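Thread: Newbie trying to understand structure tokens

Hi all, I'm a second-year student working on a class project, and my supervisor (Dr. K.) asked me to get a predicted structure for one chain before our next meeting. I've only ever worked with sequences, so writing a 3D structure as a token string is new to me. If someone could post the tokens and maybe explain what I'm looking at, I'd be very grateful. Here's the chain:
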Amino acid sequence: MGNPALFPLFYETTTDDILLVQINPLERRQTPRTTGEIHDRLNEITFNGNLLRELRAVAFVKSLIEAGKLSPDEYKNVHLHRIDAGGVLDDHGASSKRKAEWDFFVQLCDAGRRTARSWLAAHYGAIGIRGTLDLQSALQ
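---
Reply by user tm_fold:
Sure, no problem. This is what the structure looks like when written as tokens:
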């Protein structure tokens, strides 16, 4: 269980843009208190580990390209974007992934569409031009 690797998207596609749809929060507003909440949070952290490692690598390569130490002809300067479900999914812990009820699926689908529309309204103009994910902030 884990996020799919980003690396194939760098060199196996012609676009410079990568859109992450993040459903596992990097951080929670509430501190987990019960055994179940702690277990759920541990699962979220573990699930996000590979993504964070790849985002750090992307940030490092971008900094080397911007400093002129790597050639943009040999290394892709990707434009990262992220639709983040933070806030929308705050009330749903990792254990909600086992909830297989139709009404819950419809609720998640509707929330996802609202979040995507909001993201597109704010960031559509940046696609193909620059990334909208602030890597430094995302990695702190």
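A couple of things are worth pointing out once you decode it. The mean pLDDT is 86. The chain has one domain: 7-138. Feel free to ask follow-ups in this thread.
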